[in-house]
Design a protein that fits this description.
This protein has helices at residues 37-43, 71-84, 97-108, 130-139, 144-151, 157-160, 174-180, 182-186, 188-203, 207-215, 235-244, 260-263, 265-275, and strands spanning 2-6, 9-15, 22-26, 48-53, 90-96, 113-121, 222-227, 248-253. By secondary structure, it is an alpha/beta fold. It has one domain: Rossmann fold (3-Layer(aba) Sandwich), CATH 3.40.50.
Length: 278
C-alpha cells in the first residue's frame, strides 16, 4: 500500500501501475479498499487499477481532528485524491456508499472523470440505505467509547449476518466484513472518525436527492450495474439512475446482494472490461 497526505489526513491506496486505462474503485461505509481485491486481480492485466481506502470506518490512518467527514467533505477528499495523483480521463467506480460519494463528486464537478460506474449504491432518498444503513447511522449518536462497545458484537458471525448489519449486503463475503471491523474495534481514533462520519450522514440525509438534480447534466458515459437480488439498494433506483444520466447503460447481475465485488467479482470485472476502453 502507498500513502498520500491529503488535507483531511493520510489516505492509503493501492496502485497497480501500468499503461492501461485508469480505473479508480471506491468502497463503502465500514469497508476498505480490499472490497475490490478480486476485481483488481482480474482487471490489472489490462487496466491500471487505483484503490483508495477512504476514511469510512475501516481505515487504519486516523484523520485530522478538524477534517470535514461529512458526505460532501468525503466527496471533496475523493476529488483531491484524483487531483494529487494527477489522474485524468478516469473511469470512476463506486459501490455502496462509494457510489454516493461518486454522485456527490459529479454534482460538484469532476473534470478528471471520463466515465462513471455506479454499482448497487445509495441513491435519491435511500441515504442512509435501508434497515442496514439506518441502523448503523443511528449508532453514531453514541459517544465513541460506547459506539465501540456496541460494535464489539460484530466479532460474532451470527450477529454480522443479521439484516441490521452485513447480512443483507453480501451473500459470500463474511470473511471480509470480519476483517473490516478490526481497526475500528482496536483504535480509539478510528472510532472517533467513524462516529463523525455517521453523524455527518445523519445530518445530510437529503444530499443525494440534491445531487440527483445535477446528474442530468453529466455529459460523459455512465454505466449503472445493479445486483438483481439487492435487498438494501432498490433495483428501481438503478433504473432511475440509468434514466437520469443522459449517456447511461444499465446492466443487472444475478445471484448477488449489494456488494457485487464480493459476491460476483468475475461478472463485475467482465462487465467493466467490456464497457471501459482498452
Amino acid at each position: 500500500m502507498e500513502q498520500l497526505d491529503l488535507s483531511a489526513g493520510p489516505v492509503a491506496y493501492e496502485d497497480t501501475g501500468g499503461d492501461g486505462p485508469v480505473v479508480v474503485l471506491v468502497h463503502g461505509l465500514l469497508m476498505d479498499g480490499s472490497l475490490w481485491d478480486d476485481v483488481v486481480a482480474d482487471l490489472r492485466a489490462d487496466h491500471r487499477c487505483v484503490v483508495p481506502t477512504l476514511p469510512l470506518g475501516a481505515h487504519t490512518l486516523p484523520m485530522r481532528e478538524d477534517a470535514d467527514l461529512s458526505p460532501r467533505g468525503l466527496a471533496r477528499l475523493l476529488g483531491e485524491f484524483l487531483e494529487r495523483l494527477e489522474l485524468d480521463d478516469v473511469t470512476l467506480v463506486g459501490n455502496d456508499t462509494g457510489g454516493a460519494l461518486v454522485q456527490l463528486l459529479l454534482a460538484a464537478g469532476a473534470p478528471q472523470v471520463g466515465r462513471v460506474v455506479l454499482a448497487s449504491c445509495d441513491a435519491f432518498d435511500n441515504f442512509p440505505p435501508g434497515l442496514t444503513g439506518r441502523t448503523v447511522v443511528a449508532t453514531g449518536k453514541l459517544p465513541p467509547a460506547l459506539f465501540g462497545l456496541f460494535m464489539q458484537q460484530m466479532r460474532i458471525k451470527p450477529l454480522r449476518r443479521l439484516p441490521v448489519s452485513f447480512g443483507r449486503l453480501t451473500k459470500r463475503g463474511d470473511a471480509a466484513t470480519a476483517r473490516w471491523i478490526k481497526s475500528l474495534l482496536a483504535r480509539p481514533a478510528i472510532r472517533r472518525d467513524t462516529v463523525r462520519i455517521l453523524r455527518g450522514i445523519s445530518a445530510h440525509r437529503g444530499a443525494l436527492t440534491e445531487a440527483a438534480a445535477e446528474l442530468a447534466g453529466y455529459d460523459r458515459p455512465a454505466l449503472v450495474v445493479w445486483a438483481e437480488q439487492d435487498k438494501v439498494m432498490p433495483p428501481e433506483h438503478g433504473r432511475r439512475l440509468a434514466e437520469l444520466l443522459p449517456h447511461a447503460t444499465l446492466v443487472t447481475i444475478p445471484d448477488s446482494y449489494t456488494l457485487l465485488p464480493l459476491d460476483q467479482p468475475a461478472a463485475l470485472a467482465r462487465t467493466l472490461r467490456e464497457w471501459t476502453p482498452t
